[in-house]
Amino acid sequence: MIRNIEKSFEFSDIELKKIIKDFQSEMFLGLSGQKSSLKMIPAFVDRPTGAEKGRLIALDLGGTNFRILELLLLGRGKAVKVKEKKYLLPQNCILGTSVELFGFIAQKIKDFSSEGENKLLGFTFSFPVKQTSINSGILLHWTKGFAVRGVEGKDVVYLLEKALQAKGIGNIKVSALANDTVGTLVARAYSDHDCDVGVIWGTGTNACYREYLSKILKYKVDDKAGGMIVNIEWGNFNKLKSSLYDLILDQASINPGFQMLEKMVSGMYQGELVRLIILDLIRLNFLFDVKSEKVFVRPTSFKTEYMSLIEADKTLNLTATLKLLKDLGVNESRPEDRLSVQKVCNIVSLRAAKISAAVLIAVIQKIDPGIFCKHTVAADGSVFERHPKFSQNVNKTIKGILKRKSRNIKIVLTKDGSGTGAAIIAALGRTRK
User: Fold this and answer.
1) Residue 196 catalytic?
2) Which residues partner with 410 through β-bridges?
3) Which of 108, 144, 263, 366 is catalytic?
4) What's the whole-model pTM score?
5) Would you call 144 a catalytic residue per the annotation?
6) Are residues 318 and 169 in the same domain?
7) Based on the domain organization, do 223 and 338 belong to the same domain?
């Protein structure tokens, strides 16, 4: 039974190479303004030089938590974090109105920043945005479970500035808007000139890269010299084979038919796939006892973080997994049950890593078809950082496909890069409008 599930999640090398080819085709279509599952959104900013200086504020909104930080850029690729605070968004800000969301954020900015000194703010907004300048962008659609009314189709910088004004905050100017992936790339590139790709593997997943202006055909500008970071929005890539469980998950989601790669790779959905598989195995009398079904009936009750604990469990008879299952409400489990659960987690996370590796190769080959140069990939997110095998499996898959050329690719954890990057982009926004 487990083997049948494993087969439905497997991707052979031939299939992975097809993903690479299909992904690059979608990239070309998106860059030229044609219909594509990849938005390929110009970020209106290039990599930093490392010489940018100043004291700046960054707002990092990418999920149910958001951060405000103050950063001092010293130049020569050095930055010092002055202070930082994290906040949890209440439910009414996630499913309510734009006034509730941005009003709440503006109040926290007011509490965080002292009055008087004028400061520039870089706004990391980690949702699909059609950016129109370095400090303006229209939300295309919500992801990650957000459904705030009055934001889709609107300029999110305008909404934030309006909320700041309503709170009487006149000394802060929003000078830059960035996706968290763009911020992560910029943060690493401030001190590493080989960095030309940024990836988030967390609650959601996305990537960006540096592209030549001459290849961004939909970007109408007279001077096509130089480059610009492009926000791929790769979570919406849809040229992937699906298992039965992917189809069930997709149909039950708030956005059926969209974000197909994200639903196979990101932290928001991996645990849900495992839950669906476990529930099916219980109903087929393959796993646990029938009374355990009630533990796994509720959607999203099995978190992706549980997968990390289970896959890291090397104890005799998987006693750490036994404790977790008991905490969830599964009072009785045999060692073979726990092994099966661990195997299911392996199946889901390995596929996520293989898909991630394939689309990452596609991006790097778009920059450098022969992969002759060094490429640093700035990576952040809970799945990349905390899962015990994910990054290892991504690198293993890259090596298996590219062989010796994989030596030119280095994936580096760029922790909290989205906030730092937003501050650096705010400094760039002084002169680039």
Assistant:
1) no
2) 376
3) 144
4) 0.89
5) yes
6) no
7) yes
